[in-house]
Amino acid sequence: MGRKDPSTDDTIQASGPGSPTSAETLRGDHPHGAIDQMPIGHQRYQFGPLLGRGGMGDIMLATDMQISRDVAIKRMRDVQHGSIPRFLREARIQGRLEHPAIVPVHEIAADDDGHPYFVMKRLTGTTLHEILSAQKLVSLESTATSKNSRSRLLRAFADVCLAVEFAHTRGVIHRDLKPANIMLGDFGEVYVLDWGVARVQGEDEAPGSLDPTPAVAGATEAGAVLGTIGYMPPEQLRGLPVDRRADVYALGCILFEILAGQPLHDPTVLTAVFDEYDARPSVRAPHREVPPELDALVASAAAADPSKRPPTARDLSDRVQRYLDGDRDVVQRRRLAREQIAMARAALITDQNTSLTTSSIARKPPGADERRTAMQHAGRALALDPTTPDAADLVGRLMLEPPKEMPREIDAELDAIDDVNLRDQARVACGAFALYAMFIPMMVWVGLSSVPYLVTVGIAAAANGGMAMFLYKSSQRIPTWFLWVTAAANCILIAILARMFSPMLVAPGLAAATMLGFCMHPRFGKTWMLVGGLALGVLGPWFLELAGVFDPSVGSFGRSLTVTSPAGSLDGARFQIAHALFVTSLLAAVGMLAREMARTQRSARRAAHLQTWHLQQLVPTVSTSPSAGRLGSQPG
User: Which of 179, 351, 409, 509 is a plausible cystine mate for 129, CB 3.0–4.6 Å?
Assistant: First the structure.
């Protein structure tokens, strides 16, 4: 193959297999014109620029004028040291490996100067080395969303493993796998390049010698160390015979570099491979969130001991593909989670009004609608990416930090719970008013025979009991005014009993029990009104006695205190027995009421603690410390 002077005609004369011999074989229609009018024989290849330089030859862009396609021609640069067989061996090995990820060889020949060359498919794309080098200059987030994302590189890596496995089944060991020898095409193609130092099993080959002089980073050593320092296993560096596990080691180093963003070994230090090293990417680059399954895969593939490596390159491909099948959309979900967190924070920043006199921004605390929107976005972020601490922290603080304004739904729900508690209290009150009715015969027994008083007590007790029964049975919301009516009816009943038994005996205990029952309900916000009403019921008859409206019911005679009832004459012995029963019944009623209150409070606390426990299981990273920050704050 003779290259003419560029000033005249940049062509190569070709001879050897594949060269055309007659115009008759080329006649036919062609989209670029009649092929029988094309230059044939002497001017088949028209050269373009230099594409690259290898250890033994130059790779040039050329156009195959016979077929009108671009090709790459690798031409041996210097014919010396018996290197022609090795050059031709590379072409023949590559030519017989017919695989989509291995560049096909179209022709092997020699020029007029005796320099061999072979013609290959012209590739377009970027080497993995260039991609990884470029990624070191950008942030991890930019890398995750770029066209050369980690998911794409892992898919390409799995294809490379299958191509290497195909070569292994044909008895070929590459021995120089590295990122610079892997190309990713513009349309999803993946190629394994440079089979110049490949070993064919069964062929005799002198073991390579170990040159202690460090090589240029990433360069392939020719004649000394067959391969590239930093990607060769220890046994290959020692010049020992290697098998397919040497390529598995190199693939492990490549996978390490994809995951960690840096080489496993320093390519400028020959002895780095022989030192103790940890091949887990997560140890070298903890900030890159290396998946545990891939972390363990790299550690085994790049093990110094060949027996600890995966047995085949296909095994590497299968394990990476299994990870991709289960985690193909991780990057997309994390991106969506970040967007949801941003929208949640934006929802919490409301009503920003910049003052005309100051540069500060006054922010209104987020209301119920803003918190609801923020919680929805934060919940979606947590569902998309459960590992993100931002979403967990935001959800936790939204749930644990009380809002300035209670949502309307919460108020309605609390009102419904209050109504349930009110019905429970009304049930206890029904029993209390039943005791009132039972004591009417007891009043007659102790000597109270005034029919008007007895009838009045019975009517007042029946009215209060009826209202309590209505509260207990009602399924509708109870209006607050009705509760105040029942409180007033209780005050009237207590006033009647205070007149019958004096304000000092029965009425104070009943008033205290009634006060306890009503104050347990949150709707009685104005407690002073209830205190005033009950106090008037107890002390009102006494005030009227002091004013002379009623006859005095309490008097003193020496060291004795006398009690007089307008409803009749009290039998002292019987009254003491009846009073003892009254005290016992009053204590029982108050105890039942207090027990009901304790049961309700414990149920509420149990529900609250159960919700907190569920929250802790859902977002275990929640921080409740004061330093955790305020809602809507942006990270520094």
Answer: 179
Taking each helix axis as running N to C, give the angle between helix 480-501 and helix 507-519, from 0 to 180 degrees, rounded to the nearest 10: 170
Tell me the residue length of the chain: 636
3-state SS of 578-606 is: HHHHHHHHHHHHHHHHHHHHHHHHHHHHH
Q: Give the Cα separation of 290 and 294 in Å (integer).
A: 7
Q: Which residue has the tokens 């027996």?
A: 307
Full 3-state SS string of 11-35: EECCCCCCCCCCHHHHCCCCCCCCH
DSSP at 442: H
Averaged pLDDT, 168-190: 93
Range 507-517 average pLDDT: 82
- HSE of 32, CA atoms in CB hemisphere, 13 A: 9
- Residue that has been written with the tokens 């320092």 in this structure: 229
Specify whether 353 is located in the same domain as 452.
no
Q: Residue 332 has what pLDDT?
A: 67
Domain range enclosing 228:
126-328
**Between residues 310 and 391, which one has the greater pLDDT?**
310
DSSP class per residue in 461-523: HHHHHHHHHHHHH--SPPPHHHHHHHHHHHHHHHHHHHHHH-TTTTHHHHHHHHHHHHHTSTT
* Contacts for 399-404: CB closer than 8 Å, 24+ residues apart: 399/375, 399/615, 400/612, 400/615, 400/622, 400/624, 401/631, 403/365, 403/366, 403/367, 403/368, 403/371, 404/365, 404/367
Cα–Cα distance measured from residue 270 to residue 95, given in angstroms and rounded to the nearest whole number: 32
Q: Are residues 314 and 190 in the same domain?
A: yes
d(CA 299, CA 318) in angstroms, rounded, equals 16
* 3-state helix vs strand vs coil in the chain, percent to 5: 50, 10, 35
HSE (CB half, 13 Å, CA atoms) of 116?
18
pTM: 0.50
39: tokens are 């230059």
| Contact present, 296 and 322 (Cβ < 8 Å) | no
b/e code 587-607 from CB counts within 10 Å (16+ = b): eebbeebeebbeebeeeeeee
Q: Looking at the structure, do residues 386 and 238 belong to the same domain, yes or no?
A: no
- How many structural domains compose the chain? 4
Residues 246, 201: Cα–Cα separation, whole Å = 13
What are 547-568's pLDDT values in tens digits?
888 888 877 777 777 777 887 7
- Residue 288, SS3 per DSSP: helix
Q: How far is CA 493 from CA 205, 471, 514, 536, 554, in A?
A: 116, 18, 11, 12, 20
User: Which residues 6+ apart lie within 8 Å of 363 measured at CB?
Assistant: 349, 350, 351, 352, 632
Q: Is the pLDDT reported for residue 224 higher than 60? A: no
Residue 282 sits at φ, ψ, to 5 deg, of: -65, -30
| Domain stop point among 358, 382, 405 | 405
Decide if 371 contacts 405 (C-beta within 8 A).
no
Residue 102 DSSP label:
B
107 and 192 assigned to the same domain: no
Output the CA angle 508-453-449, nearest 5 degrees. Answer: 110
Rounded to whole angstroms, the Cα distance separating 63 from 77 reads: 20
347-355 long-range Cβ contacts below 8 angstroms, 24+ apart: 347/373, 347/374, 347/377, 348/374, 348/631, 348/632, 349/632
Q: Are residues 385 and 237 in the same domain?
A: no
Tell me the pairing of strands 190-192 and 199-200: unpaired
Contact 288, 281 (CB under 8 A): yes
Q: Is there a contact between 258 and 150 (Cβ–Cβ < 8 Å)?
A: yes
